[in-house]
Amino acid sequence: MNSAGGGKTYAxxxxxxxHIRNPKFGVVIFRxxxxxxxxxxxLWDNAKSIYRQLGANFLESAPKRVVFPSGAKITFNHLHSDxxxxxxxxxxxxxxxxxxxxxxxxxxxIYMMSRNRSTCGVRPYIRATCNPDSDSWVARCISWWIxxxxxxxxxxxxxxxxxxxxxDGAIHWGDTRDELxxxxxxxxxxxxxxxxxxxxxxxxxxxxxxxxxxxxxLNALSLVxxxxxxxxxxxxxxxxxxxxxxxxxxxxxxxxxxxxxxxRSWDLAATAxxxxxxxxxxxxxxxxxxxxNGQYIILDVQRRALNAADVRExxxxxxxxxxxxxxxxxxxVPQDPGQAGKSQAASITALLAGYSVTTHTVTGSKITRAExxxxxxxxxxxxxxxxxxxxxxxxxxxxxxxxxxxxxxxxASDAFTAVARVNDWNALIS
Length: 430
Description:
This protein has 430 residues and is of the alpha/beta class. It has two domains: 8-160 and 195-203, P-loop containing nucleotide triphosphate hydrolases (Rossmann fold); 238-429, 2-Layer Sandwich (Nucleotidyltransferase, domain 5), CATH 3.30.420. Helix content is 32%, strand content 20%. It has helices spanning 8-14, 35-38, 43-51, 106-113, 137-141, 177-184, 205-210, 213-219, 223-229, 308-325, 339-351, 366-378, 390-399, 407-429; strands at 26-31, 57-59, 64-67, 73-78, 95-98, 125-128, 162-167, 170-174, 192-194, 250-252, 259-267, 283-291, 296-304, 330-335, 357-361, 382-385. The strands form three sheets. It has a seven-stranded mixed beta sheet, sandwiched between helices. The protein has a six-stranded mixed beta sheet with strand order 2-3-4-1-5-6, with helices on one face. Strands 8-7-9 form a three-stranded antiparallel beta sheet. A hairpin with a 4-residue loop joins strand 12 (283-291) and strand 13. Helix 1 (8-14) crosses helix 3 (43-51) and helix 12 packs across helix 14 (407-429). The longest helix has 23 residues, at 407-429. Residues 423-430 have low confidence and may be disordered.
């Protein structure tokens, strides 16, 4: 099942209820990371709301388990690395469920298929949910159900059962078990059945009634994420021009409304231009504000190739100039993982003592970091103050994520996150 809001995870939690009167029945529901199980409103919270009505007992220790009065049990666990699967050597699991299959590797899935066996009377089977990811192994696996020209699921193929067999690491498909067995000279019992069921938010009337704003949230995503999560497009992928175009911005001569939050975010590098390094990553910064009308404006962008000492001098001078014009400006600086990143962040905070400085750990891909900013740009909510830096800024944006450099994109994405977050907090406490 694919695309957001179709009730995929809820259906996954309902699936084991077919067998909870069987005292020997067990199921493992996997997420890739443990935090995805216990996130607010996630798997574990929903499991409690569903299973509590059936007299289930909840075991909070890791891995989390649900035990029903009959003795049937559901285990929630994660497979963080490929080697995690070896913890299930010797296991017999009648039902295996993967929530967000594209987050798992093909090797993990193939190995866990070997653990999908049963002596409890339930024929072993696997259920999985997923959202579209054009570059995943899942996209290749379900390609028969997807229109390869448009990327959308073929309606008349949704739910049709096909058969596959894996030989020498390659998966081969057929319309019937006998056809496949004959073609590859194998016993028909070695051929497994599979199907793909398309779903979307429009299939989930309960969610639309309970939270009508969720559809608006999906519509507010950037083009790539909206195609994936709202429309279920399995072919769209990040490419230059899909996130930013200069005609998405309105260039203005002055700030058109009162500023309610403002921040300058830095993307740091410490390399000067030399004969051996003619085109290094640059230190970039973006000064962005959110206005009273809810729109955003980019006030200034800098991009310079400097050594470490000059970077620090630039940061101090920029902080002085910003505060002279905008007394409430905040400064955000990324912190790389590890001790070196912590030391650098502490050093910069000390350098900018007296200013409002926040360091933040960099997580997720550059595309993930840029998504919220790109969504607002694509909906016409971001203006740019006229300046000599505009063309260089627009050129880099239009090349994202394929261009060699993305320093300004990173700085703008972090600046957007900083001013949007403050505004959301103010809205909560007002």
